[in-house]
Amino acid sequence: MEHLTAIIGHLAWPATxxxxxxxxxxxxxxxxxxxxxxxxxxxxxxxxxVQTYAAxxxxxxxxxxxxxxxxxxxGRGLPPYDxxxxxxxxxxxxxxxxxxxxGGVEDLRRINTNLxxxxxxxxxxxxxxxxxxxxxxxxxxxxxLGADSMAEDDAAAFVGTAKALTKVFTK
Length: 171
Prior knowledge:
The protein is mainly alpha-helical. It has helices at residues 2-36, 41-61, 80-100, 111-121, 126-145, 152-169. Helix 3 (80-100) crosses helix 4 (111-121), helix 4 packs antiparallel against helix 5 and helix 5 packs antiparallel against helix 6. The longest helix has 35 residues, at 2-36.
């Protein structure tokens, strides 16, 4: 009986801490975090930025010149989010068209499948294909982030990288 009491005593504090943690986490997720950081706020924004600059670095490692698109907000009259989505659509179309020539899938949503097909076909630098993959991840983060939370500098880096990569696949 003493052993049972000792075991229950030793397990009570960790169990209580876990229970309180779950209660607090649920409360944070349901209200506080969404008020402080709408659409993921800083967390998603940081993800988009990190993924965009990783894609830019991979593209530059593949010896492709990348310049941030200066015309992001004023140039076409579109908000930065829309320019990011347009730049991605152009790149995804170019990658898909190239992959279809190697037996790829004619579906813009299957970009990872097409990148694998191009990787297997050879002829494209691994850093280049990695840059496209990272830009795809950044585009997904941008969708979660939402149109109102996109920083112009980050959008300019994304658009510039996407345009540089699109040129490679449309040659």
